[in-house]
């Protein structure tokens, strides 16, 4: 693990980093840092934002990633075909792995950075800050909406559609408000463990179930069954780009890694957590996506948990429900905290439990949950919503911004030396920016067409619908 840079910036004095390979000196108080470049002074009785260890960080990172995205992978493979789907997934895993690593490097070089909006300000000034901040807030609010939609699907499946779907979306919003109002990620990290175990249990149960049963719940009931999976698909341009953006969404938690590393006790351990996160995620994505699609073929549901039989569908959704709730909790919490820090950074209301602190914090978490609820109700097709989020915001937050960050730190110095390594990285960062821009434009086009087709269909879900959304494919 590389040592942090010699210059640590304002707020990253000795209180925030402990020396390596020796006993901790009393002045290195990593459990309760006294000063931080983002959160300021830690006061007694106030929230300690810097309280997450590297293991908790890896779980938080996995939970921002593993959840909604994994439930849409088999349907993306159905569009692209099994072999191109796996190749594209691995390619996106490599790109987002590099992007995630750049987040940690950039944070150590610029400790005053809290989120992607601070990166925007460094890159393009005030305009960049406003643009990236708005994009980040919209992105995670849309993700929160998709999580609420996923929860409504789970509640419909568990209750056999006991009440109106719009009611279940509202219930999800209320639960989200209660949990995301917890002040710090350190206090939420235990929820991430619960959610991660839940979602993994659900998808692994699904994987085993479809392999044992051999017939998805939506397939014809009569006669012999053989999966119609395709090694190579023949999608249209719009369908292919929308499917690629669905895969990007599965790795779309990268921009939130800034917010997570900012609450680590020792940010220099970030790469350790990232390696665990990216490795576990990619292996799990490949196994689940391939097995579920292989056995279900074109009859795979979206979300994929609906692909098992009636009883096992209830079991899978029951196991995964805590994971869906925690996904919603994390994204709504991170979005609300973006606004909270934006408003109160540098003031006592950020780290003191004042009346303004609590009224503002609860008002922001409530507002985020309300907007996410509106999104979930207005775009009730899970697959279409996931694809739109990945295209419109996921690429910008995960591809272009990270490539620009590399240029910001390395262009001037590298241009003077022009080493082979530097030129190779220039090509790589440029490729990431160009490919991300292409997928953002093309993928948004394909996703919008998909949403249009959803509304034009006679049997598709509609806005604020009471119809059962747990049987969609």
From TrEMBL:
Positions of the Amino acid transporter transmembrane domain: 53-448
Pfam family, one: Aa_trans
Keyword Chaperone: no
PANTHER family attached to this UniProt entry: AMINO ACID TRANSPORTER, AMINO ACID TRANSPORTER (EUROFUNG)
Primary localization class, coarse: membrane
GO MF terms, alphabetically ordered: L-amino acid transmembrane transporter activity
Compartments (UniProt record): Membrane
TM region positions: 82-106, 131-154, 160-179, 191-212, 240-261, 273-295, 315-336, 356-376, 382-404, 425-445
GO annotation, cellular component aspect: membrane
Protein name per the record: Transmembrane amino acid transporter
Membrane topology: Multi-pass membrane protein
Family: Belongs to the amino acid/polyamine transporter 2 family.
Keywords per UniProt: Membrane, Transmembrane, Transmembrane helix
